[in-house]
Automatic annotation (TrEMBL):
It comes from the Bacteria. InterPro entries: DUF1636, Thioredoxin-like_sf. This is DUF1636 domain-containing protein. SUPFAM superfamilies: Thioredoxin-like (SSF52833). It comes from Rhodoplanes tepidamans. The lineage of its organism: Bacteria, Pseudomonadati, Pseudomonadota, Alphaproteobacteria, Hyphomicrobiales.
Length: 142
């Protein structure tokens, strides 16, 4: 019978190593659907996402305002990203689509790698997919 080393300080994660942070939901707050908007549509979508998350009582994703995701022609724009996960960029989102976007982000957070089956994605995200980018660890392999 082999014995494994007893757990001790050398096997414990460092004190600075906490739980893996939740994936991020970046929301472009500069997106606008017209030049004469009193409040930018991207900001409205961001604020609606924060409110929807509070109503849902979930901390599955971290909602982060971003200043341009270089997808300005297909506003409003968001991105889902996190360590060891695929990154997804979406556009053409309406400011009042927060519930569906949050639903998609929570589904994204529930996966190990960010890959949500197509049929399980909210319709607005199926239509608004702009790009997907492999996890960083994959791109660093020789
Ligand atoms: S202003 Fe929103 S993507 Fe550029």
């Amino acid at each position: 019978m082999t014995s494994s080393p007893a757990p001790g300080p050398s096997h414990a994660p460092p004190a600075s190593c906490g739980a893996v942070p939740p994936p991020s939901l970046f929301v472009c707050v500069l997106c606008r659907l017209s030049a004469d908007e009193e409040e930018r549509s991207g900001r409205r979508l961001h604020d609606a996402l924060v409110a929807a998350q509070q109503r849902a009582g979930t901390a599955a994703v971290r909602i982060v305002p971003a200043e341009c995701l270089s997808n300005c022609n297909r506003a409003c724009s968001v991105a889902f990203a996190g360590p060891d996960r695929w990154t997804y960029v979406y556009g053409g989102l309406a400011p009042d689509s927060a519930e569906a976007v949050l639903d998609g982000a929570v589904r994204y957070a529930a996966t190990a790698d960010g890959l949500v089956p197509w049929r399980e994605r909210p319709d607005i995200l199926r239509k608004g997919l702009i790009a997907r980018i492999p996890p960083l660890a994959t791109t660093q392999e020789p």
